[in-house]
Amino acid sequence: MAMRRLAALVAVVVLWPGLSACSTGERVDLGESSGNLIAAIAGEPDQLDPHKTSAYFSFEVLENVFDSLVEPDANLEMRPALAESWEVSPDQLTWTFRLRPGVAFHDGSPFSADDVVYSYRRIIDEQLTNADKFSAVTDVSAPNPETVVIRLKQPTPNLLTNIGGFKGMAIVSRRNVESGQIATHPIGTGPFAFSGQKSGDSITLKANPSYWAGAPKVSGVTFRFISEPTTALSALQAGEIDWTDSIPPQRVAQLRDDDSMNLAVTASNDYWYLALNEARKPWNDVRVRQAIAYGIDRDAIVAVTSYGTAAANQLAIPEGNPWYTDYHRYRYDIDKAKTLLDEAGVSGGDLDMLVTSEYPETVTAAQVIADNLAPLGFTVNIRTVDFATWLDEQNTGNFDMLMMGWLGNIDPDDFYYAQHHTDGTSNAQKFSNPEVDRLLDAGRVETNRQARADLYRRAATLIADEVSYIYLYNPSVIQGWSTGLSGFESRRDGAIRFRTASLAEGETS
Asked: Residue 481: in which H helix or E strand, if any?
């Protein structure tokens, strides 16, 4: 997807308070959007400026409105989009992109290299949400309308992922920005154009017949906001909507045998983790952190948070990903945990566990963790706050342990550096290891894929051995759609693309 990030630099996936669930029943008359594909998402976008929003609900919509220079395919490899080709200089410091000819914005204005330069300079100069993606960039220029040149201060093997991994790096219209309308009426070059919004209810897109990859097969998409998963599922089963990613995980086992709908449970690269505050005793002792890692029952956490739809994991990256490292050190072993605590001279105590009500997984998991750690002598005080407070408490270091997730991962540098380098922007746990720093610094500039994979394999192993994080599980992307909807592909990055979707006769309203 739009790359979504949690916990500082995060795309906030929140069930927004105050959203009312739509009632199920007959498919409603949608007026101008009659005939549209109707998709139910779990919340309302906060705004529609791709450079400023960090909300997952916004990116679910914006994935269909905007394009980037390159974009991830189903295997998360970068492919041409607005750039049809590119080349890299021998010193790896200059990237030259040849743009696709004949592309226009939804208002009819032609797309050119100046739009790319404007979009990237806007993010850099205004230090917007994704400015860190350009940390190695020294210049962006347009020598002619069909060419963009990006110059770097150091080799950046993940540049394509940085500029194309999600729609936060979209190419925008200068006129749309300067008119002040982009947040409420975005204009892109994507397969669908923004048509209208009903606050608290829906957003409607209409097909872009001039889309460079071919006109969509549906007349448009209406995104309805249905905050309750049971309500969204009922609406799908009643034929009121065509697609939703708001599926109750406890219903997945039953729905696998439901021939009246299509169900996809797709392993994702997202992960959920625990972090212990190493600026506080006794968490600055690696043996105590390792004891907690042995004392956590991941399988029990997966069962209660996802009803078994997630995959327990002891590292960030799941099996099947090309960056995967096989690692199984921390089996659930209370005796081993007690031995480590004895060696460290720690006999338990109070543990302040920071979670947020806006991510129910954290609250549910915390209850399991409290039970897990009781035999070790720890009394876990679960502190449940709103997400804004959670971020403040994380950033000020006011916690013993916290739980959160990191979403939308493609390249290892997307998350390892920020979270585990001594100077990382999201290293709230205050982890510092010179060898990890050296490996992560090297990984940022290593252009040989195999050598780079080895660097991250070694870094990942050290990060887990030293318990910078206690990784818990990789969740699945769970989506359902009607049998009359075809051409939609569930993706492990969660990107919601309706550009190739079609509805069978009789499926539209």
From this structure: strand 476-482
